[in-house]
Fold undecaprenyl-diphosphate phosphatase.
Amino acid sequence: MVRPLARALSRSGDGYLHLLIPALLALLGARELDQFCLLLALSLSVERSLYFVLKNTLKRRRPQEAVPGFRSLITASDQFSFPSGHSSAAFLLASALVLVYGGPVIAMYLWATCVALSRIVLGVHFPGDTLAGAFMGTSCALFTASLLGLA
């Protein structure tokens, strides 16, 4: 039961929601959609750039390569583990939604936390990878929102 749930949660952090949520908001005629899309696009640009530089500079090995006898439950999409891109992107999306729309803050951050935990359960990240990702995604959204005068 835990493995399928962890896989589903991990997949929900693959980035599709970063496209689907703005589309859904547009279909629903959401207010402040332009602000949200601008915040999301700019903060993702900052976050993905930082993610790429950190991951390929620090080159921290994933648990399967670093811990003798350990086997992950899935194959990661790239070679290195720090920071967790899924965690970073999930917390960025949650933060952007909360900054623009408010609403169910606990639900958004609970989802992002579950994405981060799923990456640990699946064996592709150490806890510190996901904590760093959560901090990075949230920080990028807050930084970008402050530049845009939204926070």
